Every structure is written in C-alpha cells, then in structure tokens.
Automatic annotation (TrEMBL):
InterPro entries: Glyas_Bleomycin-R_OHBP_Dase, Glyas_Fos-R_dOase_dom. This is VOC family protein. Pfam families: Glyoxalase. Residues 46-119 form the Glyoxalase/fosfomycin resistance/dioxygenase domain. Signal peptide: none annotated.
Amino acid sequence: MWTCQFWFMTVNKRVVPIITVKSIEAERRNHAEVLGLVELMNHGWIVTFADVSGAHQVFLMTRDPTAPVNPQASIQGDNVDAAYATACARGLEIMDELQDEPWGVRRFFFREASGNIINVLSHLG
C-alpha cells in the first residue's frame, strides 16, 4: 500500500491581503487618510500599510518584479519548504517556483481551486 506523507508549515507570522493597484502613490492617501493606516514598508512596487499596532496589514502592489503574476494574499510561516513539498505532492498548480528573493524572503506561489494566487513565504535568516 502506497502512502503519501505531507509536511506542514505553521502559519505563525501573518496572513495579508494583497491589492493590485495601478499606482501606489494614487492609493496612498486613501489608505492613510480614509482608513487611518500607516506605511510600514515601501519597496516602490509594494507597500505595507497597517494599523498603529502593526497587527492588521494590507499590501498594495503594482507589479511583482520576479514573478509571472501578482498574488492576492501573502501567508507567512515557519517552513516554506514543507509547504512547497506538500503543494507539489498534492498536485497544486505552482505559479512561481520556490526561490530566495533579494529582499530577504523564500517563497512560492500556488493557484487555489478558485483561481486565486497565494504567496507562501518565510523570511530568510
């Protein structure tokens, strides 16, 4: 009898929605002034906005520079390699292969059954 072993990643950091926008500058005031969010990080193509505690976040993204598509959510955990192995074993459609990015994360994207693209990551180091 054949069995398949699955490895799991513990989501212990954050789950963040990603909103694709034409211009971060055009949306900045909406998130800051209307929603009362503060900017935590800005790479030019992606910005993190959060409440004052930093616990509740949203990303605005123009175009991911190293991926073929923009994801709709980002899920950060402790073992992205385990999540990738399980995604592959389950036959999920991998939209962006597991790789280390220059901004300090190891990540991959998969397409869920509804068509949404999910960015799964762990921070390096």
